[in-house]
Amino acid sequence: MDIQQILFWVLAITAIGCALGVILSRNPINSALFLIVTFFAVSGNYLLLNAQFLFIVNIIVYTGAIMVLFLFVFMLMNLDADSEPQKNRLIQLAGVISGGILFMVLLASLRSASLSPLEKGSTEIGLIKNLGKVLFTDYVLPFEISSVLFLSSMVGAIVIGKKED
Amino acid sequence: MPTQYYLFLSIALFCIGVMGTLMRRNAIIIFMCIELMLNAVNLLLVAFSKMYNDPSAQIFVFFIMVVAAAEVSVGLAIIVLMYRKVHSVDINILNRLKH
Asked: What is the value of pTM for the model shown?
């Protein structure tokens, strides 16, 4: 096995293990930290696929902004280590079975798919220069509209979160 | 790596996110499982973009991240507001539209 395969297996097992840690841990702050490690593992997978821009943006946006926001909210609410009750055992079992059935269905739909190998794809579409060219020529309208989206979400978050006087 | 391995990983992460959304009662943890599902889909799109040699899928991943960031800010504002009124983030208590 060459280094790429070893890296892929390490990152994949880390991602799945920490994702299980997110849903199974009792302390919500532990869940947030597990999710941060999951995001790092998924970003490493982006780097293996030579998507360099998305690797950096995933770390900056998801780990650096979104998870920090989650941790701020946890600190604000002062959630205890175990102050949250758990759902009924039966409902938890039903949730696990539903997720398992979804997994089986998706896997079964994958088995009859014919996928070309990844090595045939170009290794240059993930570079910032090429992505920038596509983003600013073909997709410039969604890019500008996303700035309006950010503005509206910022205004909405501040209006919702204001203390009433 | 063959493409199937990336697809398996993405499907596994997505189904773990689904299980977490159904199993937990804390509203913020449900939110985090939704982010996990979005990340699984991002991984799938990046793998396909390399397979088809098309950069549009990576642009789409970029916009999914944009929308996820906006959604997290508004969603957490709503959760903080509910916490101020009810002092709990348990979804069994938050299941009515008015209090």
From this structure: 0.91
